[in-house]
Amino acid sequence: MFLMVAQDELPGVPPGGLSFAHVREVVNAHIEAVARAAPARIMSWAEPRRR
Description:
By secondary structure, the protein is an all-alpha fold. It has helices at 2-6, 23-36.
């Protein structure tokens, strides 16, 4: 599959670059970003802003 992507031969995938990441690395990056962020800068689309 990776070879097909590299050669733009994978059906249903438009030409161009793709990136692959392991889900654990993505989760760890999100946790680290939240841990480093200032509390006022953490926003969520799930909860509306209160005024």
